[in-house]
Amino acid sequence: MSTAQYIVETRHLGKKYGNFVALHDLNINVERGAIHGFIGPNGAGKTTAMRILSTLLEPTEGEAWVSGYPVMQAPHDVRRRIGYMPDFFGVYDNMKVWEYLDFFGAAYNVPASRRKGMVDDLLALVDLGAKKESFVEELSRGMKQRLCLARTLVHEPDLLILDEPASGLDPHARIELRELLKELRALGKTIVVSSHILTELAEMCTHVAILERGKLLVNGSVEEIFRAMQPAREIYMRVLDRASDAAEMLRKLPDVLAVSLLPAGFRAGQLPVARDVSGQIAGPAVIQLRVNGDDALLSNILEYLVRQGIPVFGFDEAMSDLEDIFLRTTKGLVQ
Amino acid sequence: MQANPVIVKELRGRMRGWRAAVVLTIYLVVLSGVSLLIYNVARSFGTGYNSSVQASQVGKILFSGLVIFQTIMVALLTPAFTASSITSEREQKTYDLLVTTLLPPRSIILGKLGSALSYVALLILAVAPIESLAFIFGGVSPEEVIISQVVMLMSALLYACIGIFWSSLLRSSVASNVLTYGTILIQMIGVPFLYYFVALGMGAFGLGAGGQSPSDTVSFVYATGIILSLNPLAAMIISEVFVLRGDPLFVYTSTQVLSGHDIFVVSPWLIFCAEALIISLVLVLASMRLVRPVRGHRRVAATVAPDAQAIPPGSV
Q1: Do A158 and A66 contact (CB within 8 A), yes or no?
Q2: Which of A301, A319, B48, B304 is deepest in the core (most CB within 10 A)?
């Protein structure tokens, strides 16, 4: 097994179909043990990137490596190390669940003596032990998806490449799948997973790559991205009166980057961002602050305003999530 | 060494349940009915003849009729097992799963071919007892039986390979089936027509059997021999004519094929087998290339990962 820090590396990876650019200049590193989410709308290039990494598609430019092996020059070595699950489930007619796994085990050169135990273990892992003798086409969609996931594990790969694994699943099956992926990560697998639905990935990903129209917009660990996208903290303060005075005071403070006056009913996270209503306004209002500082500084600001007689009755920090970042990153590109 | 997983999977699917047994039973029932029909027709031909001549004639007609019928059945049935073999993987969305395993394209193609041919071989050999009825009447030599079985098996190989080639090349099973049966139709009907037109054309230009240049006439005999032998029925019938004339079964020199010239003759059934083998090999190799997604060609530059220090030596 390669000990490379990055299990996947791509440099200037691109794929063109005639004049159509499916993927352009993709530079990405996937750390071992990570759950790296590829997020983007349909047609963003997620599947193209995954198919190149899975040795199913030849890139028109750039290079990609899996576990240190170049996908173009050593596809066989790459296949040995990846478990690929496409965005659909392939069913063979007339095949039982255990035969399905046994066949793929044999196709990955797992010796016959080990295959029986392997099939039982994998079916137990994906909670399909009771369906061992059922025909594959009789399984529900969620069960098929879990069986397909078990199939990716028959040769004990280091990396799982899962294209839209949760698509078409009901909420219950989706939660089961998410828990299963977490379990696989705990078993030491690296997982590259794609979705066009952000909430599917938001909870479980350690790293995220946001793609759109074949281009990588953002990539990195979830924490890094939060930091990069949020250099300043965003505070929403509610006052009963004297909003203009408060805004003036705040603008004079050194660590306050920006101050806006917003209508009284405005709530954090509301989109599109409400217009500043600066000017002499009376009565309740919301003041939006962008502050570069820690919690102590926020406490000092609040104390200062109260001391100055500003009737503050609300002081909240807006917490961004992946959804915000996604919307902010893809702003202007998403139709 | 383990068995080819594709053969195991395909045979498991094909032989499961009643389907395979029912197909085999229907096939045998149809062939038994056909033999009965041929027997009755042959007997009616023989009325009024000396009884021993009649028996051997009945045997020959029965055997020939069965072989011709079975060759047509092989041409109709074999493609059904291979013309959808790769396209069905694409249509069932299992193709990507299959080609990203460690199975080399060779195993995928030979596995599909092996499973289809083993079932067709079963159909061909299961008919042997019916064909051996001809021995009761006489008039058929064991060599003729063996040659007919070999030609039929080679036809099955050729048809299976034609099916697998189109299936590897095309995306849909419908298109693959149409082109496979189209190709076989050209071979079964188009080849005799081609022979007819070539003979007509060469005759018109004075190159035929009555032409002036002996080299032209010999090459004409060889050319038509090679073309006609592409058709298994034509190859078997001409071989049978040669055998009845007292010629050997394999290769020999003869003055009878082209009067006045002592030329080297290869029995048409052997030419067919050679042609079927060569065409099958070419089609199988082409199919193997077609099912390979990323070919693993080695480029000189840029084969080392940026994180190169961590790659095991000699692994790239």
Answers
A1: no
A2: A301
pLDDT value, residue A78: 93
pLDDT beneath 70, residues of chain B = 1, 45-53, 202-217, 256-260, 294-316
Bridge partners for A96 per DSSP: A135
Nearest Cα residue to B139 out of B221, B71, B42: B42
CA distances to A93, A96, B122 from B23, in Å = 18, 23, 11
Residue indicated by tokens 């998806």:
A145
- pLDDT reading at A269 higher than 90: no
Q: What is the DSSP string of A170-229?
A: -HHHHHHHHHHHHHHHHTT-EEEEEES-HHHHHTT-SEEEEEETTEEEEEEEHHHHHHHH
Q: Are B216 and B224 in contact (CB under 8 A)?
A: no
**CA-CA distance, B248 to B140, in Å (whole number)?**
15
B296: contact with A, CB 8 A cutoff: yes
Q: Are strands A61-66 and A6-17 parallel, antiparallel or unpaired?
A: antiparallel
Which candidate from A79, A86, A95 shows the least CB-CB separation from B102?
A79
A contacts of B291 (beta carbons < 8 Å): none
φ/ψ of residue B81, rounded to 5: -90, -20
**What digits encode the pLDDT tens for the residues A289-328?**
888 877 888 899 999 999 999 999 998 887 666 666 666 6
Chain B hits for A151, CB-CB cut-off 8 Å, are: 97
User: What mean pLDDT comes out for the span A259-272?
Assistant: 68
Comparison of pLDDT for A333 and B226, the residue scoring more: B226
Nearest partner of B114 among B142, B139, B82, B141, judged by Cα: B82
pLDDT at A273: 45
pTM: 0.78
- Min CA distance, B131 vs chain A (Å)? 34
Q: Are strands A215-221 and A207-212 parallel, antiparallel or unpaired?
A: antiparallel
CB contact under 8 A, A72 and B296: yes
Task: Supply the ipTM of this predicted assembly.
Answer: 0.80
